[in-house]
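=== Structural record ===
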Amino acid sequence: AHYFGTRLCLGGGNANNNNGTTTTSNPSGERDILELMYNQMGGRNWKDNSGWLQEDDICLRFGIDCNTDGKITSISLKNNGLTNQLPNEVFSLPELQKLIL
């Protein structure tokens, strides 16, 4: 997948760990990654951060799209006032296909 607004690409749907096996994310793991992203990228000062810390359902957060299984497929936060560097953990989201920053 190509991540618009970045120079990053990630192939496939699952992240490989060091021993060559695939890992999958669970909803609480995805929630933790989004909260890390929020905290590291100045989420408190984003133009729209609705649902990012209050919403239990990660799929209801501004800029987040999920598949029918509730897995994150898209993060779209272009022109939203993000700062700092994107945490590498975002690339471990197993179903992420689109990242627009």
